[in-house]
Amino acid sequence: MALKKSAPRNLTSRSSASRIVFRSIKKLYTLSGVHQKDGLRPTPEDLGLIEKAAIVVEDGKILWVGEERKLKSALKGLSDARVGKYNQKYSQKNSQKSNQKIKYQDVQLNAETVLPGFIDPHTHLIFAGDRRNEFEMRNAGATYQEIASKGGGIRSTVRQTRAATSRQLLDLGQERANRLLRQGVTTVEIKSGYGLTEVDELKILQTARKIKGPRVITTFLGPHAVPEGKTADSYLEEVIRVMLPKARKFADRADMFIESGYFSISQARRYFEAARALGFQITGHADQMTRTGASVELARMKATSVDHCVQISEPDIQELARLSSGTTCVCLPTSDFYLKMKYPPARALIDSGARVALATDFNPGTSPSLDISLVGILARLEMRLSLPEVIAALTFNASRALGLEKDIGALVPGFISDFICLDQPLESLFYDVGYHPVRGVFRGGCDVTPFASQL
Ligand code: NIG
Ligand code: FE
User: Fold this and answer.
1) pLDDT in tens, the chain (455 residues)
2) Position in ligand 1 atom list of the atom nearest CA 364
């Protein structure tokens, strides 16, 4: 597929009256039905297929999508509307401008398939070092908890991350973000959590915000583990009093690892009440290795997402379905794969009416993989999700998990035009391990593909 090289790179440099028309799309999947149904029970029809389609973008946002043969009349309608608006606003002041010509940039995508850019709503992208030794230990029979109790696990990555400079962390993080962008990830959530001191946690969040390529959403995860030499209560006190207020400047979401040996439900309640008062969105690592009941507890606290949900019970599933207008369940199958654990009951969650999103959970311990295609393949094979359900889970539903559902995750008017182009049919996705059919990546209507392929 040939992407026209003249596609704009920088949105802000365009005049406000200029628009881009993207043509020559064999199959455009808008996800309009997924958007309309708020991500619940996605069906193949909800993918909102338009054949031989075009997209009109203004200032990075979608103005119109439809069949290319209807483009001419659509553009005329759009021009009239624009001039009408312009007249209203300026007729007294500046009437000679009312007939101004709107400039269109024409981009022939020549794409077989176009769909919204992927959104990875749960990663621990910023850390130094690795935990390759733990892979071998787990494979020989040690559990995650046993490794952690001997000073490995999160604390090991904390030591390696504290020893790294901001520059080193940024280089590592940028390289990982580039790998996601090449696979079509246009938005990535990044958590702190490998610092566990005020300085180190803020260093991670500030570094995350410097990442270029995909749009970055930052999450404060100070209570990821209890640092050496402290008790959970004394550390949490410091997190709530000192770290949370400072982190607010660099993060919009607050997360906690609620797990036996880490933080309890009652500590979670204290933490999230303080976080909510500071205006953070709430999210949590919930019911991953043992059932603490955190998924339901957090959903009742109106968390935007509850993540992992591996150990939830049948009544939990029903309750998460009941609370789906507020909370999205984020499943992280690569961490279940690496930990050789069971997978979350995503099939039952969807069938019961809960909203399910998917993410990589990229981290050096439980999910050392940035492969978005592996996430989807495991969701299909191990969680029995259909392809449309996987696509919804990595686009609109993932945006819902981040509270961004009014802006990204579907290609409908008013949304930011983040989209990806494939030179294969949609069915080529999440089928062949390690194969990524993404050939073009556009963020806000800007072609970021050259950026990705230069890297
Ligand atoms: O999502 N479980 C807590 N956090 C990560 C693992 C972090 C680590 O082991 O370094 C997770 O699986
Ligand atoms: Fe995680």
Assistant:
1) 332 333 333 333 344 457 999 999 999 999 999 999 999 999 999 999 999 999 999 999 999 999 999 999 999 888 766 655 544 544 444 444 444 567 789 999 999 999 999 999 999 999 999 999 999 999 999 999 999 998 899 999 999 999 999 999 999 999 999 999 999 999 999 999 999 999 999 999 999 999 999 999 999 999 999 999 999 999 999 999 999 999 999 999 999 999 999 999 999 999 999 999 999 999 999 999 999 999 999 999 999 999 999 999 999 999 999 999 999 999 999 999 999 999 999 999 999 999 999 999 999 999 999 999 999 999 999 999 999 999 999 999 999 999 999 999 999 999 999 999 999 999 999 999 988 899 999 999 999 986 555 54
2) 10
Ligand 1 site, residue 361, Cβ cutoff 6 A:
yes
CA of 69 to the centre of ligand 2 (A): 46
Please give the model's pTM, rounded to 2 decimal places. Answer: 0.93
Q: Is 285 in the pocket of ligand 1 (CB under 6 A)?
A: yes
> Which atom of ligand 1 is nearest to 367's Cα?
12
Atom of ligand 1 nearest to the CA of 148: 9
Cα–Cα nearest to 394, from 414, 427, 372, 423: 372
Distance 330 CA to ligand 1 centre (A): 14
Among 395, 366, 397, smallest CA distance to 124 is for: 366
Residue 334, ligand 1, Cβ within 6 A: no
290: Cβ contacts below 8 Å, ≥ 6 apart: 259, 260, 311
Q: In sequence order, what are the beta bridge partners of 355?
A: 328
Out of 3.40.50.970, 3.30.450.20, 3.40.1670.10, 3.20.20.140, the CATH code matching 118-401 is 3.20.20.140
Identity of the amino acid at 308: H
Structural domain boundaries of the chain? Answer: 118-401
